[in-house]
Amino acid sequence: MPHAPMPSAAPSETLPVLPTAADIRRLVEDKSAARVEELRRRQAAIEEEEKLRRAAFMERTLTPGFIGTVMTRVQHAAEGGEKRLLLGQFPCEWCTDGGRKINVMEGDWPDTLQGFARVLFDFWAAELKPRGFGLSVEVVSFKEGGIPGDIGAFLSWRG
Q1: Neighbouring C-beta atoms of residue 57, cutoff 10 Å
Q2: How many whole angstroms separate alpha carbon 31 and alpha carbon 52?
Q3: What is the mean pLDDT of residues 141-158?
Q4: What pLDDT shows up at residue 146?
Q5: Is 37 helix (H, G, I), strand (E, B) or coil?
Q6: Within 13 Å and on the Cβ side, how many CA atoms surround 10?
Q7: Band (126; pLDDT cuts 50, 70, 90)
Q8: Least C-beta-crowded within 10 Å: which of 40, 93, 118, 134?
Q9: Rounded CA separation 105/99 (Å)
């Protein structure tokens, strides 16, 4: 089927500069490359932030201020009728076994704790356990495929 002739532009009008198909392909490639680079940059920032979080966790020490804050939180929780308090949570990868012993409740799970988790456990064992407080740890979140995500540490005062 023959194509109808294109109307010609009026003498005072000029056609806009028309891109080539190669120009459009290059535009698509440039945008795609920019998206990939942005994703790579974001992933690198997330990894760096996680690295800093882990380093801070591993080096953190127990302070009187932290202990005071915890005990205030315990009192508020108890006044609200609660019997336990989530002290904090951390990625299971920060345990020496990836959280496996905690997940299956093996008796020697404390041996897998590192950093601040170990410091907190030792403080509980020395100071809070003799005062009747309990401590439990458990997997509080899971990743795809049932892989443990975060470990939560709970202080309890059940009778």
Answers
A1: 17
A2: 32
A3: 92
A4: 86
A5: helix
A6: 2
A7: very high
A8: 40
A9: 10
In the DSSP assignment, the letter for residue 94 is G
Longest CA–CA span in the chain (Å) reads 97
Six token digits for residue 123: 């403080």
Structure tokens, 25: 């392909």
Q: Residue 86 has which token pair? A: 């989530």
- In angstroms, what is the C-alpha Rg of the chain? 30
DSSP 95: S
**pLDDT tens digits along 7-23:** 555 567 888 999 999 99
Please write the tens of the pLDDT for every residue from 90-120. 999 999 999 999 999 999 999 999 999 999 9
Token pair of 129, please? 């356990």
Length of the chain: 159
